[in-house]
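pinning this so it doesn't scroll away 📌
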Amino acid sequence: MLKFPALVSAVLIGGVISTVAHAETQTIDMVIKDHKFSPAEITIPANTSVILQVKNADHAVEEFDSHDLRREKIIAPGMTAKIKLDGLAPGVYSFMGEFHSSTAQGKVHVK
């Protein structure tokens, strides 16, 4: 008899935890234009999930590349890529556009 209320409670608690986890994922929009990232520097909280949503507004292919973040993503002209960052420790992480590295550079500050 007590199994049904326990099951309902477990489902409700799971829904709350799922909602909280989803609410903690922050999306940050970035644009590559004229072979530069905008914004070129962002600040995010430590130990959280963040999605970088990077739109390539140039007419050339670009690759989001970061050895610090251990991420690489080729982005075709006019396309948008999502790059997920999970639980970064405090610090500064550099990234660049592999194909236009002299101008396409940026940093993620984690505090």
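📌 and the second one:
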Amino acid sequence: MSDFNLNAFSQAVADLAAKAAPAMASFATHHHRTASAFHWSDGYFVTAEEAVEAGEEIELTLASGVTVKAELVGRDPSTGVALLKPADAAAGVPVLARADTVRPGNIAIAIGNSQGSALAVSGSVGEVGPAWRSMRGGTIDRRIHLAVGAGGRFEGGPVLDAKGALIGMLLFGPRGRALVMPYETIERAVATLREKGHVARGYLGAGLHPVRDRDAHGAMVMSLDDAGPAKAAGLSLGDIIVAWNGEAVHGPRDLIRRLGPDSAGASVTLGVVRGGEQRDVTLTIGEKPLS
């Protein structure tokens, strides 16, 4: 007979969820749904960037049920992290400890909050991989996918390991796939948001359209910003960008991935097809203006 005690396991998971609950908060999004947030440090809360809009008023419902106004300090679309600062100091709200390395199959517990009510669901880590680049150019320290049946109210909440320590923040990727933004990536984004209120992104200053035919795959220049780096470097309408520092460019999305925070200010050589002939154009990537 197995020594596994299902009731003890169940109670242990519930205890971990209860311990994390005081760090939680929730708010109503501009899409009229509820999203979660959690205390990061020094009274700041983190949540999913897609759940907040610049200029909107945010009211956080803390784990105690108390509602407080919160300032949107900044958001980083490249990592999906937004930083909130409640008007009233969150005295005594705990900070979650950081987890050790996780492996596929490890227990994962997603924590959420809905208008003061604690939420929790358990599952497992489905995949762990190396660093990757998001669709908006952010460098994500680890690829962590979850096998957890968490709904939208959990988005922006913490994902814990079997010790109750923080693996990262729950986000939903393409087709609603649950993934974790690792805590080390959040740490980096939070530091920049606290300092500057935004995270810089690379800026080419060109409107692009995908090109896929026998002769060329790349991104065709459809428009140029008057003050953008692309126009200053001599790119013209109809040019097809096919390479970035010698690496093939497969389309506009490929270019956008390369225009992450680390690209701003970098010198880049673009391979460009113009009138059937390829040439190199060197330019300095700008910093995307704040909208």
